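Weekly structure sync, notes
Attendees: PL (lead), two postdocs, one rotation student
Agenda item 3: pending single-chain targets
PL asked that the sequence for the first pending target be pasted directly into the notes so everyone works from the same version. It is reproduced below exactly as submitted, 1082 residues in total.
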Amino acid sequence: WIGLGISVLSFGLLLGTKKGNLESRRQLRKDVSLLTPKFAAVDDTKVLNVHIVSHTHDDVGWLKTVEQYYYGRNNTIQNAAVKYILSTVMQALVENPNRTFTYVEQRFFSMWWAEQSFSSKKRVKELIENNQLSFVNGGWCMHDEATTHFMGMIDQTTLGHSFLKRELGVVPTVGWQLDPFGHSATMASLLTAKLGFDALYFGRIDYQDMKLRHETQECEGLWNSSPDLNEAVFWGLTGSYQGNYGAPPGFCFDILCQDEPLVGDSDKHLLERVNDFVDVLKVQSDRTKGNHIMLTMGSDFQYENALENYANLDLLISSIFSYQSSGRIDVQSRLGPRFKRINVFYSSPEYYTEWKYKETMQQREEIDTTNGDKKLSTQWSVKTDDFFPYSDCPHCFWTGYFTSRAGFKRLERVGSSFLQAARQIESMKDSEGSVGFPDCHCKEPLYPLEDAMGIVQHHDAVSGTAKQHVANDYAKRIQEGINQAASAVSEKLKRILLLDKSDTSQYLKDLALCQLLNETKCDVSTKASGRDLYVVVYNALAKQRSAIISVPLPTDTALSDSQEITVRRIWDDEGVKARTTLQVDGSSVLYFNTGLLPPIGGSVFRISVIDVGGVRSDPRNYEPGASSVDRRLQSAQRSLSVRNDVTFHQDRDTAEVSNGILSVRFDRLTGMIQHISNEKDGSSLAIQQELGYYISFDSSKDSSNDKATQNSSAYIFRPSQSTQRPVAVTPAADKASFVETDVGVIIEASFEEPWVKQTTKVFMNQPYVEIEYTVGPVPIHDGRGKEFVTKLCSPIQSNGLFYTDSNGREFLPRKRGYRPTWNLTEYEWVAGNYYPVNAAMYVEDEESSLAVVVDRSEGGSSLANGCIEIMIQRRTLTDDSRGVAEAMNETVGGMTPYPPYGNAERIGEGVVIKAKHRVMVGKGKTGASLARSQMDEAFSEPMVFCASAPKDSVIPFKRGSFSLLKSAFPNNVMLVTFTMLHVAPSTTLLIRLGHQYASNESKTLSGTAHVNMQEILADWKVVSMTEKTLSGNQDYSEWENRRFYWNGDSTTKDAKMKSERMNDYDIELMPMEIRTFEVRVE
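Predicted structure, written out during the meeting:
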């Protein structure tokens, strides 16, 4: 009768009482709350505590755009409206003070919050104070973990945490990564422990791993993924440990579900349903340790009619109590000897974590009855690797999205890098001593870019797994953000560079970011016919570096015999030694070496045509009417000393280029690399280059012995045969082009397939060989999808072992056909050995090392000893049945609308992708050090701004170079973030410093690093510094005082108060450590 009574009460709340009697409604709420307890765990090992966590998972774009999801538009694709989810949830929580709800995505919540009245906001704050509404993760989105870089992960989390702290005073304490398709080591170490999270919960792990964990009661445990940071956090699966994050089968009460509701059911059938529910609890409780389990009651875009969800949950909870009390459910007969009673109540991830910690600590120390010594309990196993790759069936490896939408992945990396640079420049003082952006037409010129970059870290954005129109929307957001930020940055640069009181509107009027130099495009420079060019090169790294800059010039650039192009640094009498122009696709391109650029700063260069009186000094300069690209060295044997210590030699079969650091031998006929020597350490390595493509599995064309029909597409990578070797793309013989410039040699290789090109560059002062691949449009006239890869093979005896980075931080060892925590049964040899490569990958043995640094996230493997294989581009013609309902078939014209407004057809040719890799070789066991030396440089390439002025005009420069720093940081330290928090009442900065090496990666750079903030900032005097957690939302010391020490030891290396490692503004950094500071300056 109690069960039936709660049904009536629930409907009363849902429909309202007769005549709307206020007192009756209040009494109903009180009665319901008594029967639906909140946070009511019982400290008794014989009681199974069931934590009901109501939640929704709201993708920040996937099948619909952000706005379409929020407002409920375009419901012909998917019925979802976040606006009404949040509104009805708040109403339901107010109805019953014991109901709870958990929310994640702050991009959506911030939209809803902006629409609320003062009274509505007040009610929300009351719900938070009453612990009914909780926020977990708290980022702008739920970021991906395979294709994200740590910079983007930190930024999007900080954006969400800042909003929560500013508007609601909330500090999240639990990580909640329910939907990402695999989980990274960096997520566990940096983005959980360092954020101040006590635990991390997620849904998806490999199906073989999950099966074993079911059998061994290890669906929860500890995760210590960084040997250097040495932080263990609690982790647990959601979704009743079934590989997702929803309600148990049969008990989804949302309007989107097909399960029958409980409300209105007969007593007999309700009892049957409750018994079924108890059986579900037994299955889940048998798969973990302890007497607490969490039920995640919610899924994608659920709770749009929250009152219906809660009415059924109220009834379920109360019925469990009533049927136990009346003896109609015999708990022990169903659950076995472990438990005598079930205690079900509304809860939250935070409360669940508190109890998991409590029971862990209670069992942490066991007394050894033999000698009385204490020993650590082995209750939880400790995971030290990651959860990649993820598969949900034998032929279903989610390794395709590591590369999907390669062009967008590059745009994301460009946007993230530019955002860091723009923040630095915003914080600099201009010539009048002002900070911030001057006279900006918008209040916060960086916010659109911050917002866009926060959105695209979402696990269906940068992953490349959204529908085409959504991917277009993501790209549009990034580009609009870059455009607005670049406009403000250009104005600020003029104020930094020009003399005080100069009218900046009169000089360098067209100063603009040249974003498309990889496509040989810069509107300012190519339209500057007959004018001088001014190029500002900005270095966002905290160390000096030189760079080779390419600037496209007007197509009518032509020089007489008495003229040459010079490049001079402003306020520097010596010109930069570069005068050669090249014709590339009809454009003249000038390459020059910047020399050393200042750290966190830039230099200005003037490019002009000058008269030298008579024959030009360099006979190899641009010749009017001739294409330098076609100027090949045809002699059988010829040796030239190219400017700046770059030498070139060739004979009939080979060509060799040396820049004093590397010596690279090529096949003269094909332009493919044959051998690389490191002249600094004496190492040498034979290289075999292979390019090719896998044919994508198509169930309509490919047979499979076990009848598996899994297609390869946006998420899934599956070759047509599980052990397929790539179809070779053969270099075209005798078509290689070796082009000299004053900064090095450019080698262009052609292939039998016209849609593949390769450009290799060996430039002065560069310790790497740069290979640029141009791929596309990938042909599909044969009706087959193709997945293009590049492979570098060497004699290195790697024994199946290779290393990939985790989100740009730690390197993890990978071994072919092997998983550290279970015995792998292999069904897909190729796809099952692919891993995310966010920044770099390497192989090594005792004699030699080979490393490759990438310019965006890609998928990679080592399918043969000594080889590195990386996927560059994918184009498939089938859908992989994981929800997006589109083939990974990107075309330049996008798609027509979906039905009923169109037929969702692709428009135009396939896209063309350009990707750059930096290749390095070295002595044995130096792979990590080689990769580390270029990872930051590849992430943060120099920013190039161009302006034009009438020839020989005088520009009132105050300086030719500028820097935020008095001196460079140590080579192993990165300035991760430098941004203004506010100017008034005092200027306050948020500064993150990162140690970029792990222990034992370098003899000189893996040690402790020190940075003295007072001595290193050029424009500022430090007044005070406070260490914060990674997102800056709480004092580090406060977190240390309340945190959970899952290791059982509160005196671990990192647990030592970090204030002890910061004396007189001197900051100590341990390997792989990132520290965050709020710095007040004047």
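Discussion points:
- The chain has a mean pLDDT of 89.
- The CA atoms of residues 845 and 924 lie 5 Å apart.
Action: rotation student to compare against the earlier draft before next sync.
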